[in-house]
């Protein structure tokens, strides 16, 4: 494959089509509705363990929403992206697309951006209603924190979307891709923290804090958690894992950069693998 | 003809254990309609994908209008090409017009061309309907409209009439005839030989990834010297002399059934048989000469 200049027009045409398909199939609407429902319930009952229901302080509410988003957003992103390429391949439309005056790089980036836009729109719409309620109560400070939460949720979604697109390039069939996507969700969202916790317990705290923090950065879901928790003094104490992290490794700029790497690296790998005809 | 529109030189390609193409060389002149025929798995689709640059050959070279298809000016080359894959499925959530506009955007063709093309392939009434509800024939028409976007110079059609009803097949060949008149080069694959026999300039026969034969329909027939059948209806009572002189023609077999005589002979003996018949013209009530069909030709080459 020849190296050709990236044409924005071609990338935009692919991205528009992807977003349009998701809007038309009501995928965006359905996801936004699910986010809204869960967010409202969580915001209302989230502090029940502390012996009260009803809307609590902004920080506690965001902490509860972070826990929700950690489960839902990666799942949604993986479902959104796992068939990006393998789906077109099975449909027979991939060959048609690749016969057009478009490069494989343009196709893949266009796909990614279109799907990321669908994810961002549904996330913003889904958490928006709760956001309005929170900002109405908490004012500018709440707006600041909540914007940070939504932005980081979208970035986490983009990281998992990037992994999903990589899966869609590597997988031989849609079935294999969906299996791999579910496995990724289990590993990053459920298993990883349990293993890390197990190691901490077994070593009885002998591991240096920097190492533990470093291990947290190897999981985009944990990067998201640490990003949000560390901006909220009051809720730091609720999180066993997050509090063992050292301060130097939890600077927002560093966490942001790590999340950026999680977005770029799998996509770059997907591009390399997809380029070979 | 200067540079051929498509020039395939000694191309081979293997997929794992399967040798999909072996040393295929083929040139297609500008404005020609080439029919690729062969059974499923003969390598027709692979050859088309190689020509389009979707699959790289293990060995050999392919040039489209003098340029390698994935070369430095690939965008310019590809703007001149169009492709209709076999059994393509479009996007369920878009309607026909939106689908076509998507391809127009990617090909750099103005969107205002789209409604006219949908009209041309008979999809105008369904333009605003979701592709999800399209029949197989309608999807194929949409695929064809997509291939016609931007007046391509070279058209690759992989089994284009699959799934079309007889009316759709007829309309497809009408459009093909118009394209041919405009000088468009067409590569058309099919396993329905009878259907394309009349509509292509040249045929290329693939079997097991090898090019078995290439040429015009007449050349392929002549090359095999397949026997042709001459069916005679004789006048009662005057056949004996005729039968005797036919029996004297070399390399000719006679078979009588239901009052009809079937004479089988090689192409090179055709005139000798006709001369024998002319000598006894009064005995013949009717005559029907059956040339070997393309199916026969195909089977003949497949056996060699």
Explained architecture:
Chain A has 277 residues and is an all-alpha fold. Chain A is built from twelve helices and no strands. Chain A has one domain. Helix content of chain A is 79%, strand content 0%. Chain A is globular and about 55 Å long. Chain B is α/β, with parallel strands linked by helices and 304 residues long. Chain B folds into two domains: 6-222, Rossmann fold (3-Layer(aba) Sandwich); 226-303, Alpha-Beta Plaits. Chain A binds chain B through residues 1-2, 4, 9-10, 13-14, 16-17, 20-21, 24-25, 91-93, 95-102, 277, and chain B through 49, 52-56, 70-72, 74-76, 78-79, 81-94, 98, 102-103, 105-108, 143, 146, 156.
List the helices and strands and how they pair.
The complex is a heterodimer of chains A (277) and B (304).
Chain A: H1 8-24, H2 27-45, H3 58-81, H4 86-91, H5 93-98, H6 104-170, H7 174-202, H8 209-217, H9 220-229, H10 233-236, H11 240-243, H12 252-275
Chain B: E1 6-15, E2 18-28, E3 33-37, H1 44-52, E4 59-64, E5 67-68, H2 74-79, E6 81-84, H3 96-107, H4 114-120, H5 136-148, E7 154-158, H6 166-181, E8 185-190, H7 193-197, E9 202-207, E10 210-215, H8 217-224, E11 228-234, H9 240-247, E12 252-257, E13 260-265, H10 270-279, E14 284-290, H11 294-303
Parallel strand pairs in B: 3-8, 3-9, 6-7, 7-8
Antiparallel strand pairs in B: 1-2, 1-4, 4-5, 9-10, 11-13, 11-14, 12-13
Supply the key terms.
heterodimer, A: 277 residues, mainly alpha, 12 helices, B: 304 residues, alpha/beta, Alpha-Beta Plaits, 2 domains, six-stranded mixed sheet, four-stranded antiparallel sheet, 14 strands, elongated
Q: What average pLDDT do the residues of chain B reach?
A: 87
CATH superfamily of the largest domain in chain B: P-loop containing nucleotide triphosphate hydrolases
Tell me, rounded to a whole number, the average pLDDT of chain A. Answer: 86
The greatest interface here is: A-B, 25 and 38 residues
Shape of chain B: elongated
**Largest beta sheet: strand ordering of chain B:** 6-7-8-3-9-10
Distance between the termini of chain A: 7 Å
SS-based structural class of chain A? mainly alpha
The main pleated sheet of chain B reads as: 6 strands, mixed
Provide the succession of SSEs of chain A: HHHHHHHHHHHH
Overall 3D form of chain A:
globular
Largest sheet of chain A: none
Share of helix of chain A, binned: over 70%
Number of DSSP-assigned strands of chain A: 0
Enumerate how many helices of chain B there are, as a single number: 11
| Number of DSSP-assigned strands of chain B | 14
Which percent range describes the beta-strand content of chain A?
A: under 5%
């Amino acid at each position: 494959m020849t190296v050709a200049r990236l044409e924005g027009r071609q990338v935009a045409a692919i991205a528009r089509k992807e977003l349009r398909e998701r809007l038309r199939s009501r995928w965006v609407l359905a996801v936004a509705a699910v986010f809204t429902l869960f967010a409202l319930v969580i915001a209302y009952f989230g502090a029940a363990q502390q012996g009260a229901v009803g809307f609590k302080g902004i920080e506690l509410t965001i902490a509860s929403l972070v826990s929700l988003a950690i489960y839902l957003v990666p799942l949604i992103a993986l479902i959104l992206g796992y068939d990006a390429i393998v789906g077109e391949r099975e449909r027979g439309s991939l060959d048609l697309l690749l016969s057009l005056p478009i490069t494989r790089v343009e196709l893949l980036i266009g796909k990614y951006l279109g799907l990321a836009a669908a994810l961002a729109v549904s996330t913003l719409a889904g958490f928006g209603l709760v956001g309005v309620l929170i900002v109405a109560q908490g004012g500018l400070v709440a707006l600041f924190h909540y914007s940070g939460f939504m932005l980081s949720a979208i970035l986490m979604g983009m990281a998992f979307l990037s992994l999903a697109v990589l899966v869609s390039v590597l997988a031989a069939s849609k079935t294999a891709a969906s299996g791999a996507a579910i496995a990724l969700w289990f590993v990053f969202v459920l298993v990883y923290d349990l293993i890390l916790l197990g190691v901490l317990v077994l070593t009885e705290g002998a591991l240096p804090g920097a190492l533990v923090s470093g291990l947290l950065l190897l999981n985009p879901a944990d990067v998201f958690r640490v990003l949000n928790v560390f901006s909220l003094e009051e809720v730091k104490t609720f999180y066993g894992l997050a509090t063992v992290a050292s301060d130097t490794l939890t600077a927002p700029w560093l966490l942001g950069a790590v999340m950026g790497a999680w977005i770029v690296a799998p996509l770059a790998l997907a591009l390399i693998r997809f380029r070979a005809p | 003809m200067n540079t051929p529109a498509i020039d395939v030189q000694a191309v081979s390609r293997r997929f794992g254990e399967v040798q999909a193409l072996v040393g295929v060389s083929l040139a297609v002149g500008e404005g020609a309609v080439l029919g690729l025929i062969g059974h499923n798995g003969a390598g027709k689709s692979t050859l088309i994908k190689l020509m389009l640059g979707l699959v790289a050959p293990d060995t050999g070279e392919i040039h489209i209008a003098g340029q390698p298809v994935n070369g430095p000016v690939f965008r310019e080359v590809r703007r001149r090409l169009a492709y209709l894959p076999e059994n393509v499925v479009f996007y369920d959530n878009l309607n026909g017009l939106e689908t076509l506009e998507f391809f127009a955007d990617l090909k750099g063709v103005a969107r205002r061309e789209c409604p006219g093309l949908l009209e041309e392939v008979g999809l105008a009434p369904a333009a605003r309907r979701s592709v999800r509800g399209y029949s197989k024939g309608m999807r194929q028409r949409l695929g064809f409209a997509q291939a016609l976007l931007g007046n391509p110079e070279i058209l690759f059609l992989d089994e284009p009439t699959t799934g079309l009803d007889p009316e759709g097949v007829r309309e497809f060949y009408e459009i093909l005839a118009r394209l041919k008149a405009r000088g468009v080069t067409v590569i058309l694959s099919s396993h329905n030989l009878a259907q394309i026999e009349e509509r292509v300039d040249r045929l290329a026969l693939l079997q097991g990834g090898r090019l078995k034969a290439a040429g015009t329909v007449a050349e392929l027939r002549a090359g095999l010297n397949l026997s042709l059948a001459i069916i005679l209806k004789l006048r009662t009572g005057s056949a004996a002399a005729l039968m005797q002189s036919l029996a004297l023609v070399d390399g000719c077999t006679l078979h009588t059934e239901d009052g009809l005589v079937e004479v089988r002979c090689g192409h090179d003996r055709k005139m000798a048989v006709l001369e024998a018949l002319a000598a006894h013209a009064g005995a013949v009530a009717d005559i029907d000469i059956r040339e070997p069909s393309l199916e026969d030709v195909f089977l003949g080459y497949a056996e060699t």
